[in-house]
From TrEMBL:
<keyword id="KW-0804">Transcription</keyword>
<feature type="region of interest" description="Disordered">
    <location>
        <begin position="34"/>
        <end position="55"/>
    </location>
</feature>
<feature type="short sequence motif" description="VHIID">
    <location>
        <begin position="169"/>
        <end position="173"/>
    </location>
</feature>
<feature type="region of interest" description="VHIID">
    <location>
        <begin position="138"/>
        <end position="203"/>
    </location>
</feature>
<comment type="similarity">
    <text>Belongs to the GRAS family.</text>
</comment>
<dbReference type="Pfam" id="PF03514">
    <property type="entry name" value="GRAS"/>
</dbReference>
<protein>
    <submittedName>
        <fullName>Protein SHORT-ROOT</fullName>
    </submittedName>
</protein>
<keyword id="KW-0805">Transcription regulation</keyword>
<feature type="region of interest" description="SAW">
    <location>
        <begin position="351"/>
        <end position="432"/>
    </location>
</feature>
<dbReference type="InterPro" id="IPR005202">
    <property type="entry name" value="TF_GRAS"/>
</dbReference>
Length: 467
């Protein structure tokens, strides 16, 4: 992206640490504080004007501000920043929250302070994160929304299907989900009709924020495996500067192991230019299956076009914040924590110009973009009816608004998608995309359904994680 320095940070805003307000507090200085009704700028709606047919004022004002920055219209930038600053709040409704977090990124963009803001947000998050807080956050999120459990159930079904009958399993988990995916898989392995296989689980930590709590996860995972009667070896790989450092040797892959690679939110953390090399590294492991879960947004091809990238980023987080608003109580601490996590990603994408450290990339891509890249090393394989039935049963546990979109008959893309409030007359609002990839020489076998044990196993895992 081209830098936009339409505002001098010395004259208009400054940032200082405030842990109670997401670590960053925005102060307006030197801006002409005209009331919106007295502004000479035309075409701007007020929040209660009803000008937008859907009643959403935040998106309109934020887009106006981003456009003004792109056009270097200093007067309009000043006015819109003031207006947004007056209306935004991290404790208000969905529009106020969107305005708050995107305003933060726009401030950083305008004042060339993205790097400083991002590092402050990371530092505050690291200090406030603990095993107990993260455990409560993840389990509560899984309870009220299928945003993460959708990918867990689909990936576990694909892994069980591909590794059926194998005696030595090695799952390489590249994610930051703190192993909440694996209780149902361990339960399924324990209830197989044949001999229970030996499972090696290698967890590759993709973000520095969760590294500190992984020591608490290890004994709990080992305890849970013992309860399930599954021979188990657990290993955590952390401290990587970036995922491109992973190698076959560092992952400890053995020739007699049946390999599965599980990637949840991992690919977007690889630098755009290094992604093909990363896929080739995974291919060198000769896995039976690679499961991919990524959020559906194109923040990669648009990274050099600020307005296009801004619109896509705003579209994605509008869906996400709406989902959180519908899923959590207004005063939920877990909801506030999830929204604060978004602030880092938004600042990273819109205000840091890809200059953040390796491994902290947030350049998401859409499912068809991932498919095109992955086809160079793998071929797609569709999900069985059993896995699809498991996912449909899972979605019935949650509030209305969620739906499963299956691949079109005869199409090239065999991935499945989760949608939130899909409307036939509007652009489809994708939440998560799952793409199932496997090597050309693999054989697909029957999958063991996890539908009947999901709730019970999750409750058992809650008890283990609490003790």
């Amino acid at each position: 992206m081209d830098r936009t320095n339409s505002i001098s940070s010395k004259e208009t805003v400054f940032l200082h640490t405030n842990p109670q307000n997401n670590g960053i507090h925005l102060e307006m200085q030197g801006i002409n504080r005209r009331h919106p009704q007295d502004s000479s700028i035309t075409g701007l709606p007020s929040p209660d004007s009803g000008e937008n047919s859907d009643g959403k004022w935040a998106s309109r004002l934020l887009r106006e501000c981003a456009t003004a920055m792109s056009e270097k219209d200093s007067s309009k930038i000043h006015h819109l920043l003031w207006m947004l600053n007056e209306l935004a709040s991290p404790y208000g409704d969905c529009d106020q929250k969107l305005a708050f977090y995107f305003l933060q990124a726009l401030f950083c963009k305008a004042t060339d302070s993205g790097q400083r803001c991002y590092k402050t947000l990371i530092s505050v998050a690291q200090k406030s994160h603990s095993f107990d807080s993260i455990r409560k956050l993840i389990l509560k999120f899984q309870e009220v929304s299928p945003w993460t459990t959708f990918g867990h159930v689909a990936s576990n079904g694909a892994i069980l299907e591909a590794l059926e009958g194998e005696k030595k399993l090695h799952i390489i988990d590249i994610s930051n989900t703190l192993c909440t995916q694996w209780p149902t898989l361990l339960e399924a392995l324990a209830t197989r009709n044949d001999e229970t296989p030996h499972l090696k689980l290698t967890v590759v930590v993709t973000t520095s924020i969760v590294e500190s709590v992984m020591n608490e996860i290890t004994p709990r995972m080992e305890k849970f495996a013992r309860l399930m009667g599954v021979p188990f070896e657990f290993r955590v790989m952390s401290g990587l500067n970036f995922l491109g450092e992973l190698t076959k040797d560092s992952l400890g892959v053995q020739e007699d192991e049946a390999i599965a690679v599980n990637c949840i939110g991992a690919f977007r953390r690889v630098d755009v230019e290094e992604r093909r090399a990363f896929f080739q590294m995974i291919q060198s492991l000769r896995p039976k299956v690679v499961t991919v879960v990524e959020e559906e947004a194109d923040l990669s091809s648009s990274r050099n076009d600020f307005i296009k990238c801004f619109d896509e980023c705003l579209r994605f987080y509008t869906i996400y914040f709406d989902m959180l608003e519908q899923s959590f109580a207004p005063t939920s601490n877990e909801r506030l924590m999830l929204e604060r996590e978004c602030s880092r990603s938004i600042v990273s994408v819109l205000a840091c110009d890809d200059e953040i450290d390796h491994g902290d990339s947030e350049r998401r891509e859409r499912g068809n973009q991932w498919s095109d890249k992955l086809r160079e090393a793998f071929i797609p394989v569709g999900y069985s009816d059993d896995v699809v039935d498991d996912i449909k049963a899972l979605l019935k546990r949650y509030r209305t608004g969620w739906s499963l979109v299956l691949p079109a008959a005869g199409g090239d893309d065999l991935g499945i998608n989760l949608t939130w409030k899909e409307e036939p007359v509007d652009r489809k609002k994708w939440s998560n995309g799952v793409i199932f990839k496997t090597r050309k020489d693999s054989k697909i076998r029957m999958v063991l359904s996890t539908r009947d044990v999901f709730r019970e196993t999750l409750e058992e895992f809650r008890r283990v994680m609490t003790n």
